[in-house]
Design a protein that fits this description.
Helix content: 10-25%
Distance between the termini: 37 Å
Shape: globular
Structural class: alpha+beta
Oligomer: single chain
Strand content: 15-25%
Length: about 190
């Protein structure tokens, strides 16, 4: 029932400093109880831990919410920005059921804008082993990851439509390898590279 994670982040960032490391800032969105994480009571979510001593800065935009999607809006100078940062990509979409919802954030680095999409796609738990006795193996989670990838790709395309030179990084645990159907369906087929 606990979704507030600030004590965990304070403990982690303090331990990094105590071990001689740099100071990190954190941005994340607390989920609704038992609505994120792919595991009852897990309330797992993505977070951005970043250091600001080298010119990286986070662009906070509006008040984030676990249920409010972020979209692209164009400012007075014609530049696209995230409506909410940190934000989520279509958090009510059924593709995220029993899964972690992606976290999107806008950063600046030495005068350049950077949009980061942190993903943790649905687990392969329940899929049969690739080299097991059943061939071809049943992979029921694959269709959900394909849909998750489609949503992320659509978000990136919207951003690039507003600014073709936008710098976008999609990262995290996609729960697939380079030759997988989900990655081929949304990453390679739509111009994203890895």
């Amino acid at each position: 029932g606990v979704v507030e994670a600030s004590a965990t982040y304070r403990t982690l960032t303090a331990a990094i400093v105590a071990a001689g490391g740099p100071r990190y800032e954190v941005r994340q969105i607390d989920p609704l109880n038992d609505q994120d994480g792919g595991q009852p009571g897990g309330n797992i979510r993505q977070a951005f831990l970043f250091r600001t001593d080298r010119g990286l800065a986070f662009v906070n935009a509006r008040t984030p919410s676990s249920t409010t999607p972020t979209t692209i809006e164009v400012d007075a100078e014609g530049q696209p920005h995230l409506l909410v940062s940190p934000g989520r990509v279509e958090p009510a979409n059924p593709a995220w059921q029993a899964s972690r919802k992606p976290l999107v954030g806008e950063f600046t680095f030495r005068g350049q804008r950077l949009v980061v999409v942190g993903c943790h796609f649905v687990s392969r738990r329940g899929d049969q082993p690739l080299f097991g006795r059943f061939q071809p193996p049943a992979r029921p989670s694959e269709a959900q990851r394909v849909e998750q990838g489609r949503l992320i790709n659509s978000f990136v395309r919207d951003l690039l439509a507003g600014d073709p030179s936008a710098r976008v990084i999609v990262l995290g645990d996609l729960n697939d390898g380079p030759a997988s159907a989900p990655l081929a369906a949304w990453l390679e087929a739509h111009g994203l590279t890895y």
